[in-house]
Amino acid sequence: MASIAPPARGTRRSRQGRSQWSWAWVVLSSLAITGYFVGQYAQGTLDSLADREVGLAETYASRGLPIRVAFYVHIVTAGLALALGPWQFSRRLRRRLRLHRGIGRAYLVSVAIGSLSALVMSFFSSVGLLGFFGFGSLAVLWGWTAWRGYKAIRERDIRSHQAWMIRNFALTYAAVTLRLWFGVLIFAQVPFAHDSDPFDAILTQAYAPLPFLCWLPNIVIAEFMIRRRGLPALRITP
Questions:
Q1: Would you say residue 65 lies in a domain?
Q2: How many separate domains does the chain show?
Q3: Helix, strand or coil for residue 55?
Q4: Mean pLDDT of the chain
Q5: Does residue 88 fall inside a structural domain?
Q6: By C-alpha distance, which of 118, 30, 28, 11 is closest to 74?
Q7: 1 falls in which pLDDT band (50, 70, 90)?
Q8: Residue-wise DSSP of 13-51
Q9: What is the pLDDT of residues 120-176, one digit of tens each?
Q10: pLDDT tens digits for 57-116?
Q11: 3-state class percentages of the chain: helix first, strand second, coil last, to nearest 5
């Protein structure tokens, strides 16, 4: 009878090393983007920020009070979710069950409020219908995956809970990948820009695909991670 040799210690150590570096990157990039996009909107009123063309301030400064409130609520809650999310994947913190639960509750509340405010914002996206369908789909899936993760842990289905929370944080991490893709798409256009002042056109074209590009690759990668870990994966059935 053939026997299967266990993986060598060196292989396991190299995998653990890659996992730690990946987690460190996620933590640092999440905290950096949280500080960046929360900090830039804390520097003045929405009107003053719109005059200085800061971020999305110009898009929402002219909207009614409920829309501006939704904008600020989303900035705070999405930032909090992005800052808290990576720590839920730390093995050391998961062993401290009370702390893990406390951070998890704060994270899920932030996602619930952040997804609702994001859905409201999607109706007024600067890229029109593309923004509505792209960011609107992201908002709905963000809230839905959080609900599925919460429902799974309430039913004590830990493996399903882990799978749904991987999917959910992949959507939370769209705040990071949006800015990474934005930079890549800007620099990709620079060699082909021939106008005397092409900057506005480059920014517009770079931002246009982001409502979908910022999260679709994330959710695909998340599903590969789930399958690799042997967790319950999504399947297409007739």
A1: yes
A2: 1
A3: coil
A4: 88
A5: yes
A6: 118
A7: very low
A8: HHHHHHHHHHHHHHHHHHHHHHHHHHHHTTSS-HHHHHH
A9: 999 999 888 999 999 999 999 999 999 999 999 999 999 999 999 999 999 999 999
A10: 888 988 999 999 999 999 999 999 999 999 998 888 888 889 999 999 999 999 999 999
A11: 80, 0, 20
DSSP designation for 238 = -
What SS3 class is residue 63?
coil
The pLDDT of residue 196? 62
Percentage of the chain exceeding pLDDT 90: 59
For 66-86, letters b (16+ CB in 10 Å) and e give: ebbebbebbbbbbbbbbbbbb
Cα three-residue angle 167-180-86, rounded to 5 degrees:
40
- Tell me the three state secondary structure of residue 203: helix
Question: Structural domain of residue 38, as residue ranges?
Answer: 24-228
The residue to which tokens 């593309």 are assigned: 130
Residue 146 domain-assigned (yes or no): yes
Cα separation, 38 vs 220, whole angstroms: 27
Give CA angle at 53 (123, 33), nearest 5°.
75
| Domain contains 85 | yes
